[in-house]
Fold each of these.
Amino acid sequence: MDFRRLGRSGMKVSEISYGNWLTHGSQVEAEQATACVRAALDCGITTFDTADVYAGTKAESVLGEALRGTRRESYELFTKVYWPTGPGQNDRGLSRKHILESCHASLRRLQTDYVDLYQAHRFDYETPLEETLRAFDDLVRAGKVHYIGVSEWKAAEIARALEIADSMGLDRIVSSQPQYSMLWRVIEAEVVPLCVKEGIGQIVWSPIAQGVLTGKYLPGAPPPQGTRATDPTGSKFIARLMRDEVLEKVQQLRPLADEAGLSLAQMAIAWVLSNPNVSSAIVGASRPEQVRDNAAAAGTKLDADLLSSIDDVLDGVVESDPGLTTSPERRP
């Protein structure tokens, strides 16, 4: 496993991170989830990403149990706050109340005294940004959080947060967690240039485009049963990519992967890691063998000719408009 610094911070993360967004506590039984976490550790993955909202808070509990007994200093643990975790009006957002209460609840579920990275899962348009950043800073000062990051924030939102942090002497954002893949490149226009300038690293999710870039979905054919595209929770996120014109292009990538000696998934992961602003690529899995296959992409370098050929194949189906969002509930 290769390692990279998380932005300009001093902490290093594994190039491949293990995430449990749509698996632990929902699609995958606890025993199988633990097997996947153990496979990740065996492959040298040290970075684990979750969120309080995943599987209605169950994902954090499953991950905490799976990591129990592992030397705490040997891995980096990331979680997030924003989405509703209860029925109350204050059980959501980035208010001081919700951030502090959610952090303490996450620590209990994860069976730890601290998280290495605490991330704002979306931007909160109703809470003053100063309040949010002060609450995060207080958690850092208290030793419950080592670093702070954001997920799916726009460049202007990140820039404003950095400006406030600098003016108030607060801890700065060190990471951004956006969707990023060969097919979804919306961060390249605005988010990446800002983050390069400000020393913020990308921890990207969905590098294999919800499984589309594995090649298992075929044009003109129904998706295989038991896959993300047939799951009620995950299918809404993959629907945009399940067009025949996209699936046909993905099949055209297979000869390129074969020639490079890679699986399609490995080539997709290596592609996002070819962006120097990417600190780590998050992969999920429902079986240990998937973890091992994905982890094998670490350290793989794609040459310029291959990168150019990939662009040629995918011409016309790449999403690159910075105005696009992965969240239907985002609003200006």
Amino acid sequence: MRPYRFALFFMSFLLGALALAMSELHGRIFQSSLTELQFSRALLAIATGSALGGAGALLQAVFSNPLCDPYILGVSSGGVLGAVIGMSLGLSIHWIHAGSFLGCLLFTGILQGLLSSRRSDASQVLFFGILLGLFGSGILTIWMAVADPMGVYGALLWMLGDLGHASVGQGLFLLMVVLLILVWVSRRSHELDLLMLGDFQASSMGLDLRKARRRWIWIASLLVSLSVSHAGMIGFVGLTVPHLARAIVGASHRKVFPFSCLLGAVLLLLSDHLGRWILSPVELPVGVICTLWGAPALIFLLWKGPVRLMRASMR
């Protein structure tokens, strides 16, 4: 199937999910600030869910590891740290988003610098990423210890996922980036299939592991940076969704990546609605809702067929 068909397929389902989510507005979008907020929040949920689902599928393929999620490389720690520092300094929400994105890029640059200093295999890259994430968490803990109470509260919201500061521009920008990456991935999906075979088999088939891994880490880090800088850390979407996608469409990343983006968008949109509805008017963080369905879903997949799941993830 041609790349543009994947983009059209992906966009049609996203627009359908968005139309379903906004059906209660009865055609009055943007007539009031409330309806505009609902629309922008739904759009950001769709864009963020698709970015996290796609990033999880990429990283699980790059490292041939079914336990990888978008936050395993430590990039998100830089994003949360940048956001928390911005909150503690009393910056506006736009500067907080910018600080979070710059923090993600900084930690991505550090990781890529570590990788360029020597020839590293998949396990070493993961080890670098985990250590980088722990380092960022340590700095974040120190900053929260000396910050004011409002800064700590804002940090907790960011770490649990927050879609409350959504705007239409943010959602559209993130969605366009995901669509462009979707088209690009569909042209090079064979590299992901080779990486899933392991380093030895991939290199024996002519793939330059170092260049390919660095390229895909940059792509996944870009998706993670945009999602964290706009919506905070939302767990289990990037970990669980790729497994669900492989169970439905098979192991080929020409299908797995777009379906992971689609499934992540739909599930995060539904999770956000549930978080606002279950204890209304109290709003539960969207990350909490994702944990409540993500962990049982992954446990069920492992319990239902652990051997089949691992083989689908590794081949």
